[in-house]
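Researcher: Here's a chain I'd like modeled. Treat it as a single chain, no partners, no ligands.
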Amino acid sequence: MAAKGSKEAAGSGDGGIQAVARAFAVLRAVADSGSGVKLGELSKRVELPRPTVHRIVTSLQAEGAIYLTLDGRVRTGPELTRLASTAETTLIDAARPFMERLSQEIDEKIDLAVLDRENIRFVAQVMPRTPRLLAGVTVGDLFPTYCTAPGKVLLAQLGPRALRLAVPKRLAKYTPRTITSMAELEAELEEVRQTGLGFDREEHSESICAVAALVRDALGGLAGLTIAVPSERFYDREKELAEALVRTVDELNAELGAE
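Model: Modeled as a single isolated chain. C-alpha cells:
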C-alpha cells in the first residue's frame, strides 16, 4: 500500500509545493517502516520513480532527516528526532493549562501520553487538589499500547503497516481482562475511531481504569489525554469523566489549530 499522501504528492501543485509534498511522503514511508526500507521498496510505497526518490533521499540525508545504513536501508535521522522533540514540548506546554482545568473540575489526576514504538510514554501530568489513592503512573513511564486507554486512541490513528509496528507480536496478558487477540484489538480500535474515546477497564492493572481522547495539533502531532483512576471511583462516574474529557480535548484541539 502506498504511504499516505503519496498520490497527492505525485500529482499536486508544481515547483516547491510538489517537492515538499513528495518529501513528506518519503519521510512518512521511512518512519512507518520502523527498521528502515530499501530504496526500491520505498519507491513502490510512495508511488514515485526511483530516480525521484533517490534525489529526495539525498536531499533529506544532507539535512540529517534520514540516513543510510550499511546494508542500504533508509532510516529516520537525528534531525527528525530533534524536530519531533521540539513539537512534543510545544504540545505539552499548550496542553498543561487545559489539563489543570480538567483536574480541578473532576478532582482527579490527568496524564498526557505519546506513542513510543510499541509503548506509550507519559510526558506530562497534573495532580488533583485532594490527596487520595491514585493510579501509579509518573512522567517518563512506558506502558504497552494495546491495553491502555491512551495507547488505544493513538493506535486507532495508524494504518495497518504502522499498527503492526506499534503492537508486540505477542499480546501479553496483564490481567484477566487484557485483550490478547489482534482481531479483538482491531475491533476495539474501530470502536475508538467511531466514538473518539479509548477505555482501559482494568486491562493493564487490576483495580485501575482509564479513559482517553486524542489531542492533535495543526502539524499532525498526536497525544492521548487521559483520566486514570482506581476502579472504585470509575464505574459510577464513567459517563461524567468521559464527557468532561471530551469537552476539554475539543477545546484544546481548537486551540492547537487541529481540523
